[in-house]
Amino acid sequence: MGSADRPRQGRVSVYEVFRQERKGQAFQHAGSLEAPNDAFAEEYAREFYGRRQESEALWVVPRSAVHEIDDFVDELERNYHRVDGYSLKAKLKEARERAGTSARGDG
Amino acid sequence: MSALNQLGQEQELLEYVQRGGQVETTDWMPDEYRRLLIKFIEMHGNSELMGVLPEREWILRAPTLQRKLALTAKVQDEAGHSQLIYRVVEDLGKPREQCLADLISGKSKFHNVFHYPTKTWGDVGIIAWLVDAAAIISQKALLKCSYAPYARIMKKICWEESFHILHGRDVVLTMMLGTDEQRELVQEALNRWWGPLMQFHGNPIPMEQDPMYHWRIKSQGNDEARQQFLDGYVPQIWELGLTVPDAELRKDEESGRWHFSEPDWDELKHVVTGHGPKTKERLELRRMNHEETEWVRQIVLAKAA
Fold it and tell me: Which of B8, B22, B111, B243 could bond to B148 as cystine, CB 3.0-4.6 Å?
């Protein structure tokens, strides 16, 4: 991604900020900031994302600590562990006919 | 990557964003898309930063302590928005120092409305109410921007802007309930700002020809934004007994569209290319401020050493 990861002037680095809007909710990515160290990063995060009581809590994480995984292969087409692996319609119809209950039509 | 491959990949990304897909910082993107993103988002950052200057002039002259506090908070919000926005630009590859240098040298642009003077407290009310209203229409449309990191910070920005509009409307309402002289100040300010407000959303280029729409950086056309502004705010202006200084302005009930005098596009072009009545003075103030605060940046950076 080129310059995005490079600390500016070799001295500041990027932190990602995640915020929780209400207690019990998941933390969501809010944005990022640049800071010379963790203490500054925390203060900036407070200023940018907590000044108006809009957040319950913040997570401030150095970007270098975030490891992204975005390649999920399904080489074996393992649809047997997903709902789209099961189409019951035809079998159910046949089973109802066999049992003589198809008139109820609750499918 | 071969040239042909690259072309195919570019077409694929274009189709992806046109279907409503969103792009993240770490995703591959075509140079043209990156260039347009930087241009658009940088101008937004510049505008937030320059937008505090007309209002800053009134912090010391605010009529009450409550207004002084509200105005200070608003100025703080806008400066904060520019911080968030420049950060997005940095991730796209243009450092903040370069953005600030280009702003000060006049190489990059900022919104037309911030090139004008604020003559009276009436202007402060009209800016906070109607300029912010026009801006929030553009910003709400950016919640769907194809570049996801920008769309995400827009959520916070829109949330804060809605308080700014209420603050502005409250200033205007208070003056309209005051003396004849105060009502006069509001009307005069509206007369001064109407032209720039009608130019704010840009020339009526068809949406399909707008490169910012092509890449789904913007999700609405300029004219559409202007119609939305008129629809939302002209009735609110009229109900206070104020007059919009455009004899042509009326809503066609059949089509639901507003008719108005053609905005002065020459003025818009002239102003945003650095020739507005206050452009020089405000950029000079920005430059001076940047120099005077250099020692703060040095100390902060020393902490990192």
Answer: B22
Whether B87 and chain A come into contact, CB under 8 Å, resolves to yes
What residues of chain B lie within 8 A of the CB of A31, using their CB? 84, 87-88, 149, 152-153, 156
Q: Residues of A55-73 as b/e, b for ≥16 C-beta within 10 angstroms?
A: beebebbebeeeeeeeeee
The angle formed by the CA atoms of residues B16, B19 and B22, to the nearest 5 degrees, is: 60
Angstrom distance (rounded) from CA A24 to CA A34 = 28
Looking at CATH, the fold of the domain delimited by B30-105+113-304 is given as Ferritin (1.20.1260)
- Mean pLDDT, consecutive 10-residue stretches, chain B (305 aa), reads 77 95 94 97 97 93 95 93 96 95 96 96 96 95 95 92 92 97 98 98 92 95 96 97 97 96 97 96 95 91 71
Distance from CA of A89 to the nearest CA of B (A): 32
- Residue in chain B closest to A39 (alpha carbons) equals B303
The tally of CA atoms less than 13 A away on the side-chain side of residue B249 is 18
Interface touch B87/A31, C-beta < 8 Å: yes
Report helix, strand or coil for A31.
strand
Query: Is B152 touching A (CB cutoff 8 A)?
Result: yes
Residue B264 at interface with chain A, using a CB cutoff of 8 Å: no
**List of E strands, chain B:** 250-252, 257-259
Homologous superfamily of the A9-65 domain (CATH): Phenylacetic acid degradation B (3.10.20.520)
User: Residue length, chain A?
Assistant: 107
Q: CB under 8 Å to B254, separation ≥6 — which residues?
A: none
- Sorted by where each begins, the domain ranges of chain A are 9-65
* Predicted TM-score (pTM) of this structure: 0.87
Identity of the residue in B91, B92, B303 whose CB atom sits nearest the CB atom of A40: B303
Instruction: Choose among B25, B84, B303: nearest Cβ to A37.
Output: B303
Complex confidence, ipTM: 0.78
Report the chain A residue with the minimal C-alpha distance to residue B163: A52
Domain edges within chain B: 30-105+113-304
Whether A12 and A35 have beta carbons less than 8 Å apart is answered as yes
- Which of B18, B38, B215, B50 shows the shortest CA–CA distance to B135? B50
Q: Does an H or E element contain B138, and which? A: helix B132-141
Cβ pair B115, B277 in contact under 8 A: yes
